[in-house]
Write a structure and sequence with these properties.
mainly beta, 45% strand, six-stranded antiparallel sheet, 23 strands, single chain
């Protein structure tokens, strides 16, 4: 995998930011026996553990309190585009992967530590990513990634090509047919500009993001009408391994974005009919979309397409 040091921003639990130099030193698959007596945070049963070794240097002029919190900014993303589960152990670590992060880190000082992650069996590694800030709809303020060789190709290998029609699993509700297999087609992924967001308030976080507009058409193969609420299941998948949820443009402070019209949202789709929807996804600058996923209802897994950004 790609290694090396990068200058990044660490956001402490109190919201204060610190400049650090973060180096990924190595990533190795660990023996499954190390999981005996350990606890994964919502990790997959029977998963595969990995050791991530990293080095942190304080590049600022202030002491960093709780320097061990840097580990919480790190993510090991699998080729299913889902984050690996951190694994905890009593005593601060385990043989071959010791957690040696100090309580505080003085200016110019460094430490090397190791953390353990769990990925589902059969899932490879896409990237190691450091993020700072952000949330489900809004991406991280800062995204820095160390890709794993072949990870991106493996992650998108089973995906359909843009323009292909695939079945996505959508819960229309008990009165409207329940779980439906909807034929869906990714029509386009278009890059917007910050100028599109001129209606936002200056202090709004999304103002510094790049908007991307995703258009998907769906057909109703059922025997009854259903409410078109698929927008919440669409994800933009990025080079750094981020999953960016999307929303209709008009639900973002009432903005009317010509490149992403509100048509199709809130409509009722008749049996045998179809609907086309556009969603807006905000990416950190420099973190490019590579695929579009749809979270299948009742499965928690993504079906998707490789993306061509225009």
């Amino acid at each position: 995998m790609e290694t090396g040091a990068r200058d990044v921003v660490h956001t402490a639990a109190n919201g204060k930011t610190y400049g650090i130099r973060l180096a990924v030193k190595g990533l190795v698959r660990a023996p499954e026996s190390i999981l005996d007596g350990a606890g994964a945070q919502d990790g997959p049963e029977g998963g595969v553990p990995y050791y991530l070794t990293y080095e942190v240097t304080n590049t600022g002029d202030e002491k960093i309190p709780h320097a061990y919190e840097v580990f919480h900014d790190l993510t090991l993303t699998g080729t299913d585009w889902a984050p690996g589960s951190p694994v905890t152990a009593s005593g601060g670590g385990r043989a071959g992967c010791e957690d040696s992060a100090p309580e505080a880190l003085a200016p110019s000082d460094s430490y090397t530590s190791c953390g353990t992650y769990l990925l589902p069996k059969g899932v490879g590694v896409l990237a190691v990513t450091h993020t700072s800030g952000g949330g489900f709809i809004t991406p991280a303020d800062h995204v820095t990634s160390w890709p794993v060789d072949g990870g991106l190709g493996a992650a998108s290998k089973e995906m359909a090509a843009q323009g292909d029609t695939i079945a996505v699993r959508y819960d229309a509700g008990e009165k409207q047919g329940g779980l439906l297999e909807l034929p869906a087609t990714l029509k386009s992924v278009r890059k917007g500009s910050k100028a599109d967001l001129d209606g936002l308030e200056p202090d709004d976080a999304k103002r510094d993001r790049i908007p991307y507009y995703v258009t998907i058409s769906y057909s109703n193969p059922g025997k009854s009408d259903f409410y078109a609420g698929q927008a919440g299941s669409v994800r933009v998948l990025t080079e750094s391994g981020q999953q960016l949820g999307g929303v209709p443009a008009l639900s973002i402070w009432g903005l009317d974005i010509a490149a992403c019209p509100p048509d199709g949202h809130g409509d009722t789709v008749p049996a045998g009919g179809s609907v086309t929807q556009c969603t807006v996804h905000f990416a950190a600058e420099g973190d490019e979309p590579v695929a579009v996923g749809f979270e299948n209802a009742g499965e928690g897994v993504l079906t998707g397409w490789r993306a061509r950004v225009s």
